[in-house]
What does this fold into?
Amino acid sequence: MSRRLRPLALAAAATAALLALAGCQISPFSPSKSDKSDTSSRNTDLPTDTEATDTEATETEATDTEATDTEATDSTSQKTPTKTGTEANMGSVKDAGDIPDVCTLLTPAQVTTLTARAITQIDADGGTTGDPSRYCQWQLEGGQLAVFLSRTTTSEFGVKVADAETVDGVGEDAYLLSGHLFVLYGTVQVDVYARGGEDPENLAVAKRVVDVLLPKI
It folds into this structure.
């Protein structure tokens, strides 16, 4: 090659090298489609602040509702106590049910007040629940009080012996026979025997006893 052409060849080679370097210039970093997809996926998995707040609010409302329901249940159970035992079995036996223990119907203080005599002894019948008749006797100083309860019907009670004396103003029907005051109350026959005074006094005592007994039967 002649000396005249060598400088031109060198210049052309230098120009080609510059062009090659210009074509390989590194551009600023930008994520690839794959990187963008991963980033988008990660961002989607994370809850936003609004979603987290809504979730917390919903959980709080659910907790408040459960607490309110519990309080309402507690309040209802307190206002409506359940009756058990003797209290649940209490009620009138005027038309049906077991005849009660007569000794429990009058307290010693009531007997003393009604008869104006002190009690010296109480004789219970020793019966059990379900017995068709029950009685109790109170031995008194100078007297006695006895009460008998049994089931009857209006027709049965209406059959009176010739010596029976009708007594008004006591129960549904009543009569006096041999010192006993018989009283009809529903399907219960009440027989009260009072002794210790004159007949009128004994009848007055028996009537007072009936007035106290009937509301308890």
Notes: Residues 23 and 162 are 145 Å apart (CA to CA). Strands lie at 119-124, 133-140, 143-151, 165-166, 173-177, 180-185, 188-195. The chain is about 45% helix and 20% strand. The domain at 102-216 is CATH 3.40.1000 (Protein Transport Mog1p; Chain A).
